[in-house]
Amino acid sequence: MALGGSVAERLPSSTSVRPEPAPGAMTFARAWFKAIAGTSYLPMAQAEVEAFLLELTQRLSDALHAEPFSPQVGLQIGTDLVNAHVTSAEALGRSVEVIDARLLRDLGLAGDAGFDDLHDRMARLLGMVATGFARALRDRTLDEQEMVRRAAMIARDTAERRLRDSESRFRHQANHDPLTGLPNRALFTERLGRAFASAATGSRLGVCFIDLDGFKVVNDTLGHHIGDQLLTAVAQRLGQAVSDHLLARMGGDEFVVLVEDTTCTDDVLKVADSTLDALSAPFHIEGHEITVSASIGVVERAIAGTTSSDLMRAADLTLHWAKKSGKGRWALFDAERNERELAQYALAAAMPAALDRREFFLEYQPLVSLTDGRLLGVEALVRWEHPERGVLGPSHFIEVAEETGLIVRLGLRALAHACKQARQWLDLGGHTPFISVNLAVRQVRDAGLVREVTAILDRTGLPPERLQLEITESALMSSTDEPVRALRALSDLGIRVAIDDFGTGYSNLSYLRDLPVCELKLAGSFVEGLRSPAEDPGRAIDERILATLVSLAHTLGLTVTAEGVETAAQAERLRLLGCDAAQGWHFGRPGPPERIAELIAPTALPPRANGNVSGAG
Q1: Are residues 277 and 317 in the same domain?
Q2: What is the CATH number of the domain that holds 234?
Q3: Burial, 281: exposed, middle or buried (Cβ in 10 Å; 0-12, 13-18, 19+)?
Q4: What is the pLDDT of residue 361?
Q5: pLDDT tens digits, 17-30
Q6: Which domain holds residue 202?
Q7: End-to-end CA distance of the chain
Q8: CATH code at 557?
Q9: DSSP class of residue 183?
Q10: Using CA atoms, how far apart are residues 439 and 426, in angstroms rounded to an integer?
């Protein structure tokens, strides 16, 4: 809003509108106005401000051409800006920016032969403008501060007194959990940082990272009101149990104990045990008896060579281990396990690209009759030709593939490749074995399994009776009947179904009666026991177990194949126990398809019953 009076009455006395401004000066003045508009309160109308800025523009132009050149004009211009209420730092910055960017161009001086000299003069003028602005603003501020100083002195004593009274309260609120009153994450982090910063040579420390088991159920069933009271009661018990150490609430149902100046891991494990003991008794809250346990991640190490972040990451990881192991317990950080999990994570990250690059391939291992040594079947085994780690067996990556869901894609690709290879063997003539392919749990439970298997058989031309699918007992442990229906549908097509690693799972044995299973493959752990001396009590037990399993399978009309056979003595003992077939290094290691082709070609001689046919594998 414009104030009354003329421009001359309200602008600094050193300014007066020149009747003939330099060409382009008005264009620049308007640009200047737009640059500083809104940055300061100006008690003038736009036209008055533009007139003021036009005058400053003309003075800048005159100073640029003056001989001898004096940058002192900039001091007064900076002062005049402040006197005209252009007082913000933003306004000064924009003024310097627009003058530097546009003044020479708008005045038509950008192409002058002496442009470099003009540009140098401009820089010096701008420096003086900023200096004059700062001085004038300082003087003005000092005047205003003097007016405030007396009032401030009066209020200071009162403010300081109130500040002292509230400072401790604010500090406590900032560093403590409002629900439990325990130190919070910020205070814990500060204390942990101090412990690292002030550590002497050889100092050690540890942490117990605590997470309540099943706390969400309490909130969901009894309500957050009860949950909050439970957290408060838990905090009280933990505080009593670990009173010699810093206990903090990290948030939610997570707590952490800092154990400083430890001498060994046992110092922290004792704290973890005390924590579990403190939570063993039930809590009584508003008529509810609530039992709660905790999982604890424990880390204890020398301070040298690590950081607080590394320590807490290790504690968080170890807490996850405790949860995964069954809850209600502590887990101690294990560097080797951590390395293994990091390696597994790296494999999981690399697996999608490895599938695209076709780094996975199959090797084949013969399944041989223990009666006459005939080649009955061939198991297809997946390998990963990793570009850095070399050839990896399934134990390195199958679990990762299961967890990531890539097992379905990998399994279908392996199945298709195995069926294609089996079709090629079939074309050789002679005695053709069936091809046996493992199905992972996710594959068995996949709704499209039957459709995918059928499509692969149609595409490769392999007769269904030449395909055997191996499943584990765990694949049958489902809350639905889908896996069983899928297996029956596959069996109806003529496909053989075998249960792999039989004897290690927990499936209901009645499934063997109801499922379309034609073969049981005994786990290699039972066969391993046959390598022990005959007088070893453990061997006798393993033999009785094997005999029982073989008898059970034969009663149900199933054939039995033993896995992991490595010696002729094992093979002979299995034959005497009634086992039908076997596979293992004694009969042939996994190898390329050419080795199997040598066995099934018309000119190939069948292996002896107890002979080593390692040339096939």
Answers
A1: yes
A2: 3.30.70.270
A3: exposed
A4: 95
A5: 445 677 788 999 89
A6: 185-333
A7: 96
A8: 3.20.20.450
A9: B
A10: 22
